[in-house]
Specification:
Layout (H helix, E strand, L loop, with lengths): L1 E8 L8 E3 L1 E5 L2 E2 L5 E4 L18 E5 L2 E6 L2 E6 L7 E6 L2 E6 L3 H11 L4 E4 L27 E5 H8 L15 E4 L9 E6 L2 E10 L18 H4 L4 E2 L2 E11 L2 E4 L3 E7 L6
Parallel strand pairs: 12-13
Antiparallel strand pairs: 1-2, 1-13, 1-19, 3-4, 3-18, 5-11, 6-7, 7-8, 9-10, 12-17, 14-15, 14-19, 15-17, 16-17
């Protein structure tokens, strides 16, 4: 039987992730996941792709605020007021109106990154639909690259690490759900799954970028594992590893929950 081995949440897009024993699902995906992001004054996202050091920035959601920590320095960022002015932030072709946090947080973050940077928050009233090619009516996501959740199986990670001179952790791929038990790339064939009492649709493979080459513990960029993956996981659309997933409704998922495959792309599960 497959089971949930680990759960992750990323309060601030492109910053360090958090390990959790359980996660609650809301209309966007994982509650509190990627509701904040770093942006320029003009609404251009600032991510690890351009600034690998963001991997060293830790973010924790607290009551009506976000606590940021970088080394020995920290900053508490209040959630912007509902009537705060908004700027248009472009996320992979989607223009999203987001309020910016106060100037104190901008000064603190700019000092850590060495460039002008601002924090934007996604309120509940923002409508960001999932790509209609893969979505059903009403499917939404937060400030992700496009889909509410991301899933990887342990067999796929073991297969990859067996090809690398230096194994890497699953954190390189920033999943929400890490599943123990499947054979290598078995999740490529999954169509519908249940985790605990929650249903999910496995909609498409996830194309990988240079963020996977950044060591999350040091912020240093290398060539692996993307170089090795490109040798055997290149498909239409890029180098694929892991699956984008859409949830059906709310609920909670926990480490240790069984993961049941309800249907596959080539046949119905028995």
């Amino acid at each position: 039987m497959h089971r949930v081995a680990a759960l992750f949440r990323y309060p601030l897009k492109s910053a360090a992730g958090e390990n959790h024993q359980e996660l609650r699902l809301d209309q966007f995906g994982v509650e509190g996941d990627r509701r904040w992001m770093v942006t320029s004054r003009d609404g251009v996202p600032i991510t690890q792709r351009e600034h690998p050091g963001l991997s060293l920035l830790k973010a924790r959601t607290e009551a009506e605020s976000l606590m940021l920590t970088w080394g020995a320095s920290s900053c508490r960022v209040p959630v912007p007021a509902p009537d705060s002015p908004r700027i248009a932030v472009n996320i992979w072709g989607d223009s999203v109106g987001l309020p910016l946090a106060g100037p104190e947080s901008s000064r603190w973050l700019s000092g850590r990154l060495g460039l002008e940077a601002h924090l934007a928050f996604m309120p509940d009233d923002v409508e960001r639909p999932v790509n209609p090619r893969y979505a059903q009516t009403g499917d939404r996501t937060a400030l992700t690259d496009g889909y509410p959740l991301h899933l990887i199986g342990s067999g796929s990670m073991n297969d990859l690490n067996g090809r690398l001179d230096q194994p890497v952790g699953v954190q390189r791929f920033r999943p929400n759900v890490y599943v123990e038990g499947p054979a290598p790339f078995a999740e490529d064939e999954w169509l519908e799954i249940r985790i605990g009492d929650c249903g999910f649709r496995v909609v498409k493979p996830c194309p990988r970028c240079t963020v996977t080459t950044i060591d999350p513990a040091t912020g240093v960029r290398g060539k692996e594992p993307l170089q090795t993956l490109a040798g055997y996981r290149r498909m239409d659309g890029g180098v694929m590893f892991g699956q984008n997933v859409i949830h059906d409704g709310g609920g909670e998922i926990r480490v240790g929950d069984p993961v049941e495959v309800l249907s596959r792309r080539d046949a119905q599960a028995t």
